[in-house]
Design brief:
The structure is a homodimer.
Chain A lengths: L1 H9 L4 H5 L25 H26 L6 E8 L5 H7 L9 E5 L5 H4 L5 H4 L8 E5 L8 H4 L5 H19 L3 E9 L2 H13 L10 H6 L2 H15 L6 E5 L3 H19 L10 H9 L3
Pfam families (chains A, B): PPK2
Protein name (chains A, B): Polyphosphate kinase 2 family protein
GO molecular function, one term (chains A, B): polyphosphate kinase activity
Amino acid sequence: MAKKRSKKAEKEPGLSELLRVPDGGERVDLGSYDARATPGGPEDKKAALAEIEQMGERLAGLQERLWAASTAGDRRRVLLILQGMDTSGKGGTVKHVIGLLNPSGCRIKAFKTPTPEELKHPFLWRIRKALPAPGEIGIFDRSHYEDVLIARVRGLAPRSELTRRYARINRFEQSLTGNDVTVVKCFLHLSYDEQRARLLERLDRPDKHWKFSPGDIDERALWPAYQEAYELALRRCATPRAPWYLIPADRKWYRNWAVSRLLLEHLEALDPQYPKADFDVEECRKRLLKGA
Amino acid sequence: MAKKRSKKAEKEPGLSELLRVPDGGERVDLGSYDARATPGGPEDKKAALAEIEQMGERLAGLQERLWAASTAGDRRRVLLILQGMDTSGKGGTVKHVIGLLNPSGCRIKAFKTPTPEELKHPFLWRIRKALPAPGEIGIFDRSHYEDVLIARVRGLAPRSELTRRYARINRFEQSLTGNDVTVVKCFLHLSYDEQRARLLERLDRPDKHWKFSPGDIDERALWPAYQEAYELALRRCATPRAPWYLIPADRKWYRNWAVSRLLLEHLEALDPQYPKADFDVEECRKRLLKGA
């Protein structure tokens, strides 16, 4: 027993463990999570930016290995799902975290209001079309979770259908993880007050007006319903193989640090390797040096 | 006359002018262009890297404006086409130049050997599907030009068909520029010797073996035929509205600097603007402050 403990203590506890939402089906109470907290994080913004820069190099290196491995048949890939209220920083995370990577290997998809064609199909149809290929890092800015979030809050589907959707989502994500997709689901947890501050900033700056719509204030009026819908989605769809991570998002530097760190931990766990040459290196070198 | 000249002298001559392939239908002789040259460029690698970093901020700012403008109906977008021999640095350009941008607004497509489905369609079919949407910056790593390059060298299509393709490509690109797409075609001009050095480096480094295939040496044997095919493509398809830029690519720092600079000049010429608010800013601020 003592031995086991000391072994565990040796291993640095990962951020993944710290931020992971329990998957036992317990009720999730978002009110009990402080959106300004910085669990496991650096002490301030300056330190965070320095660590993010360092992680950037490691992330890009691991991304290259993941891609290289795929050229030799390794089918593994990563899917990062970003969810959160308006202004919680989904777009900012893509810019600052995914911006650390080689854009060639990233498949980014921002899901908007479904088009008439998308509405003709089951809700996972457009999701499947946007999945990353082997070796890629896929990024979803919003996702199939909108179909149990806004769909619930706005009553876009009957309750019975919503209930079925949680199960469908879980089966879908299980099939992904069974097909070499590492699923990293991040809920960017923003406070009501911070959302007001961010919306006001968008109003104060003419170069941010384009990001604002009066409809954002109407959505804000539905805050409690959204929080409840998120609590349910986190509770029903936090599974051992496709866990949810709850990321306090009131501080942008912590949010970027935490998502970078989560991505890093998952890529390090995959530990992709450069493939070995399947050709005669020495012979090729000779051919090239002989004048070819 | 003197006045005109002095006006021209006032304007800093852009890199676009310097690298633009003449569009009068004259024969292009690639042998007369030094692939190690650095026309208009900084004096050394160190200076280039510093300038690239500075340009990165301006590029990202212009990209945001382009995107913001598209949310208010501006349909303009940019398409950067990268062509060049193996190891000329198409992938490296995406990593280092496009890596300066917000990945959300980039639509990157690497064209490989056509799939059986793609082969069933006209050669521009797969190209049209990968075009950037309004506000986006599209990047093609290889393109429809492969259909007059490898297709010519490997005899994948009859000569009469190849001849028709130049005209089709020109019509296609005219239709793009007529539809608010700024087309920036970059030929990364590499020397035969530098290609050998880069292939040898891939052999020397086990972490680069995955980028190498013995077939690369066979393709290299066709170097003169490829150069001729490029000369023809540059000659036939350099048009006033969709010009070709010839970028000496033996020095990676110059290549990255030059493509960054070309992109910057084109975005600055577009001069996209943040859209004005189409809502009552003051009223929204009041609603938010009143407790919403």
